[in-house]
Amino acid sequence: MSLESEVELPAAEALLPGTLPEALRTELIAFRRDLHMHPELGNQEFRTTAAIKARLEKAGLQPRVLGAGTGLVCDIGHWAGDRPALALRADIDALPIPDTKSECAYRSTVPDRAHACGHDVHTTVVLGAGLVLADLHRQGRLPQPVRLIFQPAEEVLPGGAADAIEWGVLEGVGRIVAVHCDPRVDAGRIGLRTGPITSACDRLEVSLDGPGGHTARPHLTTDLVTAAARVATDVPALVGRRVDSRSGLAVTWGRIESGHAPNVIPQHAELSGTVRCLDLATWRQVPDVVVAAIDEVANLHGAKSEINYVRGVPPVVNDQAVTDLLRHAMAARRGPDAVEGTEQSLGGEDFSWYLEHVPGAMARLGVRPPGERTVRDLHQGDFDVDESAITVGVELFTAAALLDAAER
Predict the structure, then answer these.
(1) What's the Cα-to-Cα distance from 31 to each of 165, 174, 178, 286, rounded to whole Å?
(2) Could you read off the pLDDT of 377-402 as tens digits, one per residue?
(3) pTM of the prediction?
(4) Domain range enclosing 106
(5) Which of 49, 141, 166, 343 has its CA 20 to 30 A from that of 103?
């Protein structure tokens, strides 16, 4: 059932709380900066978990730490079998890269660790929305339950979402929503897309072996450097001809290593990279296609191949009705012009695992200062955000929770 046909915006706006209090805005920015200064890698987010838990408990809520000791789930409202909850999901882990923002007062204090993907913002947005919704519940103004999910290890393949699901975070959930920071969208706006919005992403590791020898006599050896070069260049072209070209399959190498001396043909070579795919059906057959292509090229050059194909995540496929929910929630708070279309990304996101079980949607949260054209891209040490985006995310999720109740 489409929200567009069920809820008129003037009626929807009447459900929504007023402007976010300035004290809460200030507190949320401080909370985000504290997380930014103390980034923790996947499945190591103990300080982060404790900080979220303490703030939720201060609000009178009862968060539950997930099975491995990091990440939380927290329920708000009255739970009944006929009122499935809307879940708001945040990822809480950081990346193993240095923070290079030299003049930033809240830059990371942990060497070679940084919140360079915006998970500190995602976490703060869900926390802020939870605090607003808890206050509405105390006033008797929350018509259906809401679940907050603070998920660990999004950056660790195949993603902490799979573990969170095993620990029961989707029990009683009817729909789920999330945001992801987008440095190419202005703060104050969101990007939406129905259908696939991210790519499938797997990891690939290849070892090649042969007898090696002197570069003066390559005909008596297996020339592993040449073999590795051919795997690197020929395999992407081969697999591109063995699946539907509309699937956007891309094999991209990030590392090739072999040899130690210019006149020695080595006995071992290694390659590693990623396999990305826009189409869910093609993603399911990709491992067999890629492995066969690597073996074929390696055998042609007399090399023995050993392949470690690590399954990652499927594409995030946004449900139309839940995408409409986010569109109307944003329009109710910021006007219809605050929503823009967005393209499918080749980046991977483990939010996709939740969508294997319940319908949901992810929005791109604009974090670029309006008017600025310099892009501080994701997964870079200088990544930062316009912190007004936190308020926008809180408003989006709060409105979505209330409008979802009106629709259902």
Answers:
(1) 27, 29, 19, 42
(2) 999 999 999 999 999 999 999 999 99
(3) 0.90
(4) 3-197+315-407
(5) 49
